[in-house]
Design goal:
Elements lengths: L1 H35 L3 H14 L4 H12 L6 E6 L2 E6 L4 E4 L5 E2 L10 E6 L2 E6 L6 E3 L2 E3 L2 E4 L3 E5 L3 E9 L2 E8 L6 E5 L1 E2 L7 E6 L2 E6 L5 E3 L2 E2 L4 E2 L5 E4 L2 E6 L1
Parallel strand pairs: 2-13, 3-4
Antiparallel strand pairs: 1-2, 1-21, 3-5, 5-6, 6-9, 7-8, 7-10, 10-11, 11-12, 12-13, 14-15, 15-16, 16-19, 17-18, 17-20, 20-21
Helix pairs in contact: 1-2, 2-3
Length: 249
Amino acid sequence: AGEVEKLEALLERTARAEASESRLRRLMSDYEMALRYGARLEARDALREATRLAPEERSISELLRRLEARMPPPSRVRLEVGGKRVAFVGRLPAVLGRGEVDVPIRGTSVSREHAQVAVEDGALVIRDLDSRNGTLIRGLPFSGSIALTGETEIGLGDDVSLAIRPLGPESLLIEVLSGFDRGDRIVLGAGPLAWAGLEADVRFEEGWAVLAARSGVELTLEGQTCALPVHLLVEDRLVVGGRPVEVLA
């Protein structure tokens, strides 16, 4: 009876090992497929599960490390669209300033937390945050908050000016007109890219930037056609409707 029990235990361990190996193979296959077609959230989750299943496999943990190292910062991504750079920040309201804020803007007259921008009831709302050199609307300083419609030029002190316009009920486009960051463009919130000549949208899922082409527009990732939206990684090279898009560090 003792030998039979030993044999049964051996068979059970063997069956568990075979099931674990089969599960590991499926996870790695899922990872490769998801990575290829831009489903990076699923690719990351498959690698995380694989590392839990086989913690001794350093090659798997290294794949996970490399994937996570290419993830943009939470709720942020920088793209180059047709040779022009634009940053996306998945947050509204958003604070502008030269400190650790939602939208860093460099300038000698810019306070660490200078102003806040938001969309409220379809209007662009700007709040001065008791800045040292004031926030200006068309060259005139104001205090508190002000609601505006359409595109508006604002000044952060006397050496930085910005053009701000709503892109929709949940997004704004900021273009830096003067200052150290002249020419920079920043989209706040979930942003359509039609203004950049691209039939696509950028949104954030669990803090991860996702690029989705409009219906009927072809989206390719590293030459591979993607039918679904792509979770973006730094150094990705995409083509949307024939126009190149690169994810910047």
